[in-house]
Specification:
The protein is of the alpha+beta class and 366 residues long. It has 15 helices and 13 strands.
Length: 366
Amino acid sequence: MDENYLVTKSNYFIMNSHYDLSFQEQKIILTLASMVQPEDTEFKEYKFKIKDFIKLLGLKDQGKYTEVPKITKELMKKVFEIKEGKDIIQLAWLSSARYKTGEGTVVLKFDSNLKPYMLQLNTVFTNYKLANILSMKSKYSPRIYEILKCNEYKKQGYIEIEISELRKLLKTEKIYPLYNDLKRKIIEKAQKELKKLTDISFEFEEIKTGRKVTALKFYIHSTKSDNKAREEVCVTTEKSITEVEKSSSELTSRVKDLFKEDITSLEAKSILDIAKGDINIIKEKYVLAQNVDKIGSVVGWMLRAIMNDYQAPKGKTKEGTFNNYEQRKYDGKDGGMTYKTIENKLLGWEENEKDGVGEEFQQAKY
């Protein structure tokens, strides 16, 4: 456990996931995320000493050793949501927490469904040192930090977020219903903490519709030379941001051009992220989509097809311009779960239910 370790997340995940965690729970998740290595292809089990965990969580009373299992138990109950196209997927953070009482250690493991957002990322993602968030006090500050960090190098110099969307990202739809309370208790607190503790700071401008504040413009500034995280490493540096944005924009445009349907740039980027930047995989699955009679959301179907590696049933795929490439091969399992099980979870199917489209493509793999 080292505050100089890097936390890595896809930008899509940061900007499209809605969750509500206590600051202690966020410390656990972000510390665990900092243990993941860039070359990892699967989530590993990460072992921590209970005494280090107690220090991390700031537990001081005499019952601190019994508090840690309670905190991780509650964390395992926390289900959160991420938007993928028109779909909303419900996910859990952890798959297990094992306490080795004789050793005084706890072993944690991320849920395998988080893989597309935290492992083998090669398109647009953000790195930051764990040190940036560990000393914060407000539970909303780490979340605001991540949102602003992944938009640090916007060409226009700011990011504009609607108040309604900001409330969703922070899971505060029912908290502080008055804007002035949201501003004073969340945004201004985060502003002070980020300036004091992290490698970025921000100013904000209120955008009004009539008399009502409906959006905020966040102007993000780098403060690397003024804080303890000054050696922080980010995937998008000031020198390379133009090239990164240009490459990402070109790939997104290529994805949009593949589709007969009208999809947004955000939807194209989500497909690109799930495919880990591999255009051929996107072409392959889109050909399969052309052979399906009824698809409610082509974007949602494509995301599932790529994640679960749908394969064409023999003799049923039409010849098309995108058929000249090799298909990927998988062993059919992911973290102890079959791809079929993962698909069922994503789609909300029960184990004994069948769907003509999903079942047909899954059967073709075995």
